Amino acid sequence: MQAIHRRRHAWIWIAWAVLLPLGFVLALVLRPSEPVDSQQPGSAAAAVESPAQHGDAR
Amino acid sequence: MSAGYKAVTWNRNKLFYDLVLVAGVALYIAIFTKFASDYWSGGRMIQSRIIEMRAYGSCAFLMLTLILCIGPLARLDRRFLPLLYNRRHFGVLTFLVALYHAKQVLSLYYNFGEFTQLEGILLTSTAGGFSSLTGFPFEVLGILGLAILLVMAATSHDFWQHFLSPKVWKSLHMLVYVAYALIIMHVALGALQSEQAPIYSILVGFNLAVVVSLHSITGWREWRRDAKAPVPASGGEWMDAGAVEDFQTDRARIVPVGGAERVAIFRYDGKLSAVSNVCAHQGGPLGEGRIVDGCVTCPWHGYQYEPHNGESPPPFDEKVPTYRLKLESGRVFVHTNALEPGTHVDPVVIG
Hints:
The structure holds 2 protein chains of 2 kinds. By secondary structure, chain A is mainly alpha-helical. Chain A is built from 2 helices and no strands. Helix content of chain A is 55%, strand content 0%. The longest helix of chain A has 28 residues, at 2-29. By secondary structure, chain B is an alpha+beta fold. In chain B, 51% of the residues lie in helices and 13% in strands. Chain B has 11 helices and 11 strands. In chain B, helix 1 (12-41) crosses helix 2 (48-76). The chains are: A mainly alpha, B alpha+beta. At the A-B interface, helix 1 and helix 2 of A face helix 5, helix 9, helix 10 and helix 11 of B.
């Protein structure tokens, strides 16, 4: 059973160890040259009435 | 099924471990806040609350990276084992730091209007859809990661391990890797979209590279060890485990048997006994532990088993499978068939 578990985990590890760095690099490579203030909520959701857009967060 | 709750047993090691953790978090927050204020004050003004939010967020990320490194480091070098001993407290503190980060985000950005904070973050972050990279609702990834950390922190006590069974509990806690993936993408699609200076990407990428590399190295070592193991005949057979002088006193030799099952053969008091290499507590490698007070002692959390029957001494009731041994011409042979957990096997006496 130990071996079965390890073999099963091995495929999960390989997927994790390959896909995660790939996703990370893609997210950086494909980002726009102009900085996006993604910390600002609703920045991608202008259509939605976001109360936070109207006020000073303080 | 029944499981009784026993309060956390505090000892000097645990208190010291936790004190170092809390001091480390406080120090990191203080240093980050001080230097970030100086660093960012030159250009665009950033509110002190945003700096604090980033301090706690980056602290939680760093803590999770360290937690994921402890396991493979302890496999590579025994000197890291003390870090593994109280890793669950490290995890719970990480959740609390991440929770405070989330609370700051909610109160900073979603504290107004007709929506509750949670409604606000879900509605505004997902309104742009999931198709655009720059507008990707990275907040949702953070919420999912935090939810996993919550489940893990809530079930970290041994009560839940007994209640759920070690197998289910372990599977549940393997979700930490999903949480780490979610948080990496939360940072990559969130903070790193706005902070485009290379240093931020390099720092996050370095953390990820260390975690992935350490796991790959230990995984490769385990795979090579399994690959070398011969496959025994069906019904079991006696397998050569090495010359008797190769067995160190109060230590074990780990022998792959049964198509990569592993047996820990301990030498103690002039005798040899064999038990499964997998601890009944959290699957720790018993063969990397040693004999303490006459018992096989797991290197991870100190769970103990009698070497001749695989039973924990009273009042504990954990059991691990045992294996038969024989000695021929100075060589130790182990039978590849595991016996039921707790089965007595006469130790082999070394002449």
